[in-house]
């Protein structure tokens, strides 16, 4: 299981994303960033976010 904490990406947010793969985490993170933070995830941002994904 892979985990991403929104706070680790620099947002003041306690959301956590859990998924089976990094790609699934990135997809869910992009939706979360758009709907909750009104932020579009660029390819550069996705690369940075990928480094924050942890194995659970």
Report on the structure:
It is a single chain. By secondary structure, this protein is α+β, with helices and mostly antiparallel strands. It has one domain. Helix content is 43%, strand content 18%. The protein has helices spanning 22-37, 43-50; strands spanning 2-5, 16-19, 54-55. A 3-stranded antiparallel beta sheet has the order 2-1-3, covered by helices on one side.
Q: Give the number of domains.
A: 1
Task: Please count the beta strands (DSSP E, at least 2 residues each).
Answer: 3
Q: What characterizes the major β-sheet?
A: 3 strands, antiparallel
Report the structural category.
alpha+beta
Terminal residue distance:
5 Å
Q: So what's the oligomer here? A: single chain
Number of helices: 2
- Which percent band covers the strand fraction? 15-25%
Fraction of helical residues: 40-55%
- Based on CA inertia axes, which overall geometry fits? globular
Mean pLDDT: 97
Low-confidence stretches: none
Radius of gyration based on Cα positions: 10 Å
Secondary-structure element pattern, one letter each: EEHHE
Strand order of the largest sheet: 2-1-3
Protein name: DUF1059 domain-containing protein
InterPro entries: DUF1059 (IPR009409)
């Amino acid at each position: 299981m892979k985990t991403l904490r929104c706070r680790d990406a620099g947002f003041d947010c306690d959301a956590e994303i859990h998924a089976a793969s990094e790609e699934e985490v990135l997809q869910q993170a992009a939706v979360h960033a758009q709907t909750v933070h009104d932020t579009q995830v660029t390819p550069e941002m996705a690369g940075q976010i990928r480094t924050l994904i942890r194995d659970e």
